[in-house]
Amino acid sequence: MLLEEKLSYEVRQALSSLYQYNPDQSQITFQKTRKEFAGDITLVVFPLAKLLKKAPDALADELGNYLLQNSGIIKSFNVIKGFLNLEISDKFWVGFLVDFSTDITKHGYRVDDPRYVMIEFSSPNTNKPLHLGHIRNNLLGNAVSRILQNVGHRIIKVNLVNDRGIHICKSMLAWQKFGNGATPQSTGIKGDHLVGDYYVRFDQEYKRQIEDLIQQGMSPEEAKKSAPILLEAQEMLRRWEAGDPEVLALWKMMNSWVYEGFDETYQKLGIEFDRIYYESETYMLGKKLVLEALEKGILYQKEDGSVWADLTDFGLDHKVLLRADGTSVYMTQDIGTAHQRFTEYPIDEHIYVVGNEQNYHFQALIAVLKKMGFAWADRIVHLSYGMVELPEGKMKSREGTVVDADDLIADMITTARQISEQQGKLDGLSEEEKNEIIRIVGMGALKYFILRVDPKKNMVFDPKESIDFNGNTGPFIQYSHARIHSVLRKANEMNLTIRPVNIEKIDSLDEKEKELIQLIYEFRNTMAQAVEELSPAVIANYCYELSKAFNQFYHELSILKVPDEERRQFRLSLAAVTAGILKHAMNLLGIEMPERM
User: Fold this and answer.
1) What are 335-353's pLDDT values in tens digits?
2) What is the rounded distance in angstroms from the CA atom of residue 353 to the CA atom of residue 140?
3) Helices 166-178 & 228-241, crossing angle to 10 degrees?
4) Where are the domains of the chain?
């Protein structure tokens, strides 16, 4: 039985015995005791005092005395302004650890209402390689998928590839004009990078033409709309939507280069999908649904032929769904894709992992779908996350100032090698072992630094800070895990096997032992919070706190040299459980944990 459940039962027993009052479970509220007060868990007395018409402090004191005499797990208590702070006995914590070490599943968190959840993440455009912003998206989507699956939800991970639109045509047109037949094979450039280079080349030519038109007397706004290369790209998009064989052939060829590049990057990040959708295959369904809604009078058409949704009833504005020339917008294909997914799969919830610059888009999408009569629109969730910036500021794709994902991954592994060698952490290992550990550490540093930040917040990614072996970093946690395994290997060399501890022989705990056990106890609550908030950051920062607590325990107390055999077994068990939780929790974040470093 969990501590909160046991105490809740005992508090209700106390209220019944002392005051003949039988409260509902919901009226018993516990919280973690604040650090400035003695105690482990606090009963909030105010709601009960109000119901019983008693002074909060007096009620807290009477309840504390009853629990001290009757509970068996209360060591002491104190009352601070209507809060009953309870210190739990060392015997309880020892018993919990022994119970936990023999059956970890008893204390794992599982949801009461498992659901079928679809999670869309990544969603790249096929006009450029994946960059640092995509890395946050992929790591966040992957971690949330792992976390939800771990607690009992059925998960399907999907990717929507944005493989059509004006931005794709810009890369295609620039390659036609300036590529001279270049291919990934002829240039030795990774396919997604090659296509991205032509997206940048388009922007350079577009800006040059705008300047020329302004010099000829045109206003800047008019020049932006009239630049010949933009008009050509718009015409190419119209030809693509009309099924022009030449345009489609070019599109298929360049997209195939990009997909090969994406797959290579996904593999480095440890990302896999259960289903991949393509905008080119879903936007027509969106157009069909929009035109059907127009016929029913749900949507309206302007004189220029464009189709709109009036969303003022939802506190939003009017949203265009089809342009005057009949071409679709992002919203159109999102309508089609959502409809297709809810038709194909009996999903209870659909989570879109998309940056916060699209907050309004998803408000409007849900509103349009409701307006069109789709009851499942209420089951759409937008997991909105903040932008990633560098210490020097924002990135811009079309100007070629983004941090490329492949380059960043390579740099992280190089930096991990340099720091590991400087600190002598890989001495004595084979070259193959060194390379594998360096890869794990470099990728762990990248993933952890991204995931430790609350998804809702913008963040600054600093590669140097992320790979520090001290502080709140992936390598620090990985090193703590490896340190524990070093202790366990030494124990094995001493013929010490971890066995169940005799609870009766451990009658008290050192403060550092107790702190570590209490953090282990908190893992269940941490998982519940991460699921509730869809936040891998909760688990990431828990891992840091657990690693920090273990290192303090390790530095202050002997594990293998403690004279008392039962205490030695207890501390070995405590170390092994800590390593197990660290490995499991970091694995939920997609981070590997080496046993040697």
Assistant:
1) 999 999 999 999 999 999 9
2) 8
3) 110
4) 3-88, 121-389, 405-588
